[in-house]
Amino acid sequence: MRISGGRKKIRVGDLLVEAGAITDEELQEALAYQKENGGRIGNVILELGFISQDLLVTVLTTQMGIDYVELKACRLEESVLKLVPENLVNKYKIMPVEIDPNNPNVLKVAMIDPMDLNAIDDISISTNLQVEPLLAMEDDMNEAIGKYYGNSQAMEAAEQYRREMEQDGLTTAEEDAINEDIENSPVVLLVKQIIEGGVRQRASDIHIEPLESSVRVRYRIDGALKQVMTYDYSLLSAISARIKIIGGMDIAEKRKPQDGRITIMVDRREFDVRVSMLPTVYGEKTVMRLTSKDGLTKPKSALGFDPETLKVFDGILSNPHGIILVTGPTGSGKSTTLYTSLSELNTEDVNIITVEDPVEANIDGINQVQVNVKAEMTFAAALRSILRQDPDIIMIGEIRDGETAQIAVQAAITGHLVVSTLHTNSAASTVTRIIDMGIEPYVAGDALVGVIAQRLVRRLCTSCKQPRLAEPEEKKILGIEDEEDDVIVYEPAGCTLCGDTGYAGRIGVYEMMPVSKELQAVIAKGATADLIEKQALSEGMLTLKMGAAKHVLNGITSMMEMKKIVYTTGDEY
Q: What are the pLDDT digits (tens) for 270-288?
């Protein structure tokens, strides 16, 4: 498409009203929201739920007579990226995509506002090429800019910082870092780039690690660490000092571990960053855990429950009192399940109080208490106070000792619903762990109403997964008796959409054990984990291994991911 004629800028909102996609009233509401909160009108209309993304794309491309490009699916060439100066890319939020195969004088450029005539003129003058605009979504654009230009921006900030250090003749980085309120100083920009890069690449954790002669930055994406950048070792103290300042830590303390917290806005979404700093032989290592404010409170449908599991989950949550335990290793999604359960139970007629270390996300309508050991506000002390606050539902971040377990059980027996987590391998072993903490078996049987053991497996990328026939040994792991049958499983391959990993996102695998009257009787006798599991299986419980096998047979995950679960739960092949 070539923009010609009167060169009149058409407004997106007016286009959508003209096409009948939204009403004039909805447009006025969106404009008022935009005035108050900022953002582009197309995004605001999407955010308010007046239109779906697919319909927005269809209307805009039809009305403007241009094509839509999904930047995630494009493999952009270095030579094309170099055609447009980086300052124009950031100024106008655009991305050069390719030289038109049929016309070497035309450059196809992805834009979030293809009607921005100033941007088109500037790109055309700078490249000496004719510009063909393509429509791209803002989130895709931010991710692409972070992916293709983020590292170079961070490297530039690092280089600028090093030059300033040399000019000023400073011996320590702290002197520069103490005055880091200047938003444009190189170290501020560098730390901002590192955190924003993590958010845009869907990282759950960011590791900044001092090595002997360099500083390595790695992101944990879908459970696996991936190196994204290395910097000169001279930058370490400045990066650490900047993180300490924004995380509310002691900038002068380098010999002790420290914890902090940062709230940051990235692409108009609020993120909570928990920071942990640990002195190592080469300097302080920083790990930042990224949590989106809305990321922990997912709808039940997003957790990966099938209809059968959802029914059991709802059954466990419908108990008026008792203990519900969610178990699994670190990073298995326990917090997400807990917060989803609380959001489900959060109605006007109940008083919900939580005790957490730390509070991971703030939920409206729920009273959340932060554990503070220095102030003698331990889990047990907080729980005693909470019981005098007339609670209906209590959430304990984690049952760590016998005292907390004892109070939790007492609360459950006296008519409260208690939700908490434990670090165990399976649902049945959770019961024996509670008994090991000093709770009498008959009391544990009486108090427990449900145990949910869970793990996370990586989802195969739907664009590039490859089918193959399962081998005899794999059929055995999948629990398929008839070895004659052909069974199709899928393998990761790798494409631009999944960053060449073969996986995109994760899904939960669950072992749900509602405590029935029969199971209660088995627990009360002080039975072993094996006997408890045997009884639960006879009542229809699916183990983690069975849940993972379902995902493999449905083409959601791979055999490799399932084997991780089989090994960690100690299940027999």
A: 888 999 999 999 999 999 9
Burial 112-134 (b: 16+ CB within 10 A, else e): bbbbbeebbebbeeebebebbbb
Give tens-digit pLDDT for 288-298.
999 876 666 67
Is the pLDDT assigned to residue 571 strictly greater than 60? no
Determine the pLDDT at residue 151.
63
Residue 300 CA to residue 313 CA, distance in Å, equals 9
Residue 134's contacts (CB-CB under 8 Å, 6 or more residues apart) are 66, 67, 68, 69, 97, 108, 109, 110, 111, 114
Residues in contact with 461: Cβ distance below 8 Å, sequence separation at least 6, in sequence order: 492, 493, 494, 495, 497, 498, 501, 502, 503, 504
CA atoms of 368 and 557, how far apart (whole Å): 36
Here the tokens at position 395 are 């959430």
Token pair 């930042």 is found at 288
Note whether 84 and 133 are within 8 A (CB). Answer: no
Beta bridge partners of 323: 418, 448
Beta-bridge partners for 65: none
Say yes or no to pLDDT of 23 above 90: no
Helix (H) or strand (E) holding 274: strand 269-280
Close Cβ partners of 465 (under 8 Å, ≥ 6 residues apart): 490, 491, 492, 493, 502, 555
pLDDT (mean) for 477-483: 81
Can you point out the beta strands (E) in 72-140? 94-99, 106-111, 130-135
Token pair in block for residue 143 = 């991710």
Contacts of 160 by beta carbon, 8 Å cutoff, 6+ apart: 186
* Cβ–Cβ under 8 Å, residues 148 and 81: yes
How many CA atoms does the CB half-sphere of 61 hold within 13 Å? 16
Put residue 85 in one of left, alpha, beta given phi > 0 → left and psi -120 to 50 → alpha: beta
Given a contact cutoff of 8 angstroms between Cβ atoms, the answer to whether 26 and 89 are in contact is no
Mean pLDDT of the chain: 85
> What is the per-residue pLDDT for 538?
94
Residue with tokens 């849940």: 547
What is the helix (H) or strand (E) element at residue 299, kind and residue range? none
Measured CA to CA, the distance from residue 236 to residue 372 in angstroms comes to: 30
Strands across the sheet containing 352-356: 367-370, 352-356, 393-396, 417-422, 322-327, 448-460, 503-514
For residue range 139-165, list pLDDT tens digits in order. 788 878 777 776 666 666 666 766 666
Q: Could you tell me if 207 and 225 are in contact, meaning their C-beta atoms sit under 8 angstroms apart?
A: yes
User: Containing H/E element for 538?
Assistant: helix 529-538
Q: Which long-range contacts (CB under 8 A, 24 or more apart) does 484-488 make?
A: 487/553, 488/555
Half-sphere exposure of 174 (CA within 13 A, CB side): 6
> In DSSP terms, which residues pair with 354 in a beta bridge?
368, 395
Amino acid identity, residue 568?
T
Contact 315, 516 (CB under 8 A): no
Vertex 181 angle, CA 178 and 182, to 5°: 115
pTM of the full predicted structure?
0.73
Minimum mean pLDDT among 51-60, 241-250, 409-418, 524-533: which range? 51-60
